[in-house]
Amino acid sequence: MAAPRAAKRPKFASGAAPPQRGEDDYVPGNIVEIELFNFMTYDRLVCCPGPRLNFVVGPNGSGKSSLVCAIALGLAGDPNILGRASSVGAFVKRGEVAGHVKISLRGDTPDDKICITRKIDTKNKSEWLLIGATVPKKEVIDVIKKFDIQVNNLTQFLPQDRVSEFAKLSPIQLLEETEKAVGDPDLPVHHRQLVERSKELKALEVAITQKEKTLNNLKALNAEQEKDVERVRLRDNLLRKAELMKKKLPWLKFNMMQKEFIEVIQEKEKSAKQEMEEGARVWEDSKGPIDKLKKHKATHTSNIKKINSQVNENMNNRQKVMDQDLKLNAELKATFDDIEDLKKQEKSRQQRILKTKEDLAAAEKELEDLQPYELPKAENAQLTDQIARINVEIKNLKAERNAVESQLKEMESKNSKLLQALRSAGADKIVEAYHWVQANKKNFREEVYGPVLLEVNVQDKLHATYLENHVPNYIWKSFITLDASDRDYIVRETKQYGIPVLNYLVHEGTRRQPLNITPEMKQLGIYSRLDQVFQAPDTVKDVLISQAGLDNSYIGTDETHRRADEVSELGMGDFWTPDNHYRWSKSRYSSYMSANVDAVRPSRLFKSNLDVSGIEDLRLQKENHVTNIEGMHEAIKTLHRKQRQLEDEEANIHKQKEEIINAMRYHKKRREEIQRRVDFKRRTLKDISREEDVESSTRKLLDQVAKLNDERFHAMMKLKDLLTEAVALKWSHTEKNMASVELDTKMEKDVKKLEKEANQKARNYEDCKRITQEHRRRLSIAKQKAESIAMITKDLEKEFLAMPTTVEELEAAIQDTESEANSMLFLNQNVLQEYQNRQHEIESISNKLKDDKGEHEICCSEIETVKGKWLPTLRTLVSKINDTFSRNFQEMAVAGEVSLDEHGLDFDHYGILIKVKFRQTSQLQVLSSHHQSGGERSVSTILYLVSLQDLTNCPFRVVDEINQGMDPINERKMFQQLVRAASQINTPQCFLLTPKLLPDLEYSDACNILNIMNGPWIEEPAKAWSSGDCWRTVVSAAGH
User: Fold this and answer.
1) Where are the domains of the chain?
2) What's the confidence (pLDDT) of residue 31?
3) Three-class secondary structure of residue 102 per DSSP
4) What is the pLDDT of residue 619?
5) Whose CB among 25, 122, 513, 561 lies 3.0–4.6 Å from 577's, allowing a Cys bridge?
6) Which CATH number among 1.10.760.10, 3.40.1160.10, 3.40.50.300, 3.30.420.40 corresponds to the domain 30-155+954-961+976-1038?
7) Quick one: pLDDT at residue 781?
């Protein structure tokens, strides 16, 4: 779109009210240029709006709202505020992968141009550029905030799809939006502070009331229990006194035990020690004469030890001689046994020689009689051929079975892909529903089809795209029944899957119209109809025709697209071209024909079911499989049985072949075994013949016997000498031992008695020491026990002095005190603890109550301070809006007012009420969808926005198709209000989008018209219009 002609604008004096306009009549933040590329309906667009009122005019669907979307998205707006899509990828032109929006804002000077570019793609990614440099989104938002641009504020930015939302704004929401858009920028901040602080104030008031109530209740409960508390304290004092007595009791017992230890136990230990020392001294004095006797005895003891050593040595020698004799005797016996064995071996050798010769002769004869074995080669070759033939048959059967199974798997794979496509399109439980229907087919009375997508085959990919775009999505995932009871059964059992079920009545089926392509249709590129381009069961096809009107939708070529207007003249109101879907409709009021052109969306469901080269074959295969599926499974079972039979036959033949081979191996092995036996017998015979002569071995053994007898004789003589020596040593040992015994007897008579007495006294002393140690241990335990109960302090010692001094008296006093305390009975044993807990709680709540009251006073003070700043300013602002709003309504011969709805300290309930009346007899009523019509609400909305013009801080405002539904009178008056407001010096830039304008409207230099047109002949008129020529020149350019 070409840039508009620069209009002459009036210049204002330097003392004019803000915002200050420059020499170019723009204010900072105005939009000076909009550039679109691959955005919604545009390939490329460059638009230069004027600084005041911009009328964007164009037919419906031409791209007016695309301009609004571009402004919002280009200035960091969220897609949700437009009410069209939730992601930026949806705004990329269909068929493209990426695009961009470029918004140029006027800076502080006419030469200062701030360009903000947002690049988007179908993957929902955005890239931001500020004056050509890539920047994060935050920097772009900072620039937008600098100019106070709020695309999410409905009073500044009102897109077509959210016009109804503005009328639905509550008074509270309208106040919030107005505060953001106009007036002091601190107003919304102060309002939020007041709302938050008022909520805190209410919470504090509730808390203070609750705490005061709780505090009074606790004080009353404590006052009722004071007498019981005094008795509890008296009882506690008695029990405490008894506990002190119990603490003294172990110390008293310890003192008595300590006194007994000092007076009795230690004295006994001293006396026993003195007696032990006296006995030891007497015993030591008697030891002098005995020492000589002991020395003499030691000499005898030494001689006895020497003799004992000699006796032991003699005994060891005798034992060695006896062992040697036993060994020689055993060797002699073994020699005689060897002689006997030699005699027996000679006899056995002669017998073995005879037996070996007989075995050798028999083996040689058996080897000569054994016939050679020949392998049956002909039979073996025949069996090998049979095995090869059977293997070939088995291989063929396996290939045939695999082909059938592969065919079934291929069909199941196609169905699975189609089911997955349906699931991706939103039918989350379609797979489960399909499997349920397949598993319960035996329960249906009639045939059940579905999902419909699985029953349809399309030969051409483009036709599949047309069909998918034309048929509603719910039909593709539907099941079709021929019996109402089947439909009810499926709906009841598959309710959790959420899948639609259609019941088809044969007598109500759609009667198909024959396809008749006339020559005129062929000239325009029409070659088929949607009901002719796919194959499906008759029931499914009838449902698609009746539900989607396929027999009224034609298919054309690019020629059809170029001559679309001529196609509609032939009476075809619905047809498809490779890129677009054309639908012509007739107005019920004016009989005016209007066209709706939509881009063809690519197929998502049929993309996994298309094979152009073999689609018909697949169709036939599917029908055969559906009708013969059970026969195929039975054929597979038969092939399995035949294969097993052939494998068994092959195994039998292999077994016969193995038997022949084993027989041959057996004969060969037997011949080799007989040959080895013959060779072994020959070697055995040679070995027996080489054995040593028995007579020579016997002579050697007899010589050995003579030698052993001689050695035994010498050993017996040595044993005799050792026995004589042993007798002499034994005699000497006996004499020495008798002398030692006499010396022991003489010493025992004098010394033993004294030693015994001294040892007895020593044992008595040790017993006394043990008793003393035991008393010390018991005394230590008693002290530890007393210390574990209570450590002695000066205060405790003073209290102990006032108590009884004996154990009996102290125990009696403890019992009396406990009896007195236990005689005091209470209904509530925990009364003291409850009293103290309540007392602590009273103190805690009192402190918190004091803090809450202080915070309450601070909160009230802050609210009054902020309210003093906010409310007067807001009242003044609403008053100004009301003045302008009322004046504008009076000029339109109706009445209206804007008022502030105040609610005291409930600042979250404050709101702005718009009251209007459009009839002299009616009363002022709040603007709502219940009291006013759509046109009346539109008039009220646009006049309210106009009333904000003088007070606004925003650089521009956008309103999309607000005049829809207005009658011509109100629309003309509204237009005059807009023109008058736009001519004011401090009016922001405004964009008003509309599909039409009334004739003979009054325009001013503040108005700028932006025409949006589309069509195949728009290029030449656009050039003429851009050059600034008159409308006649434009029309003539269009005629050429």
Assistant:
1) 30-155+954-961+976-1038, 296-370+692-743
2) 92
3) strand
4) 46
5) 561
6) 3.40.50.300
7) 81
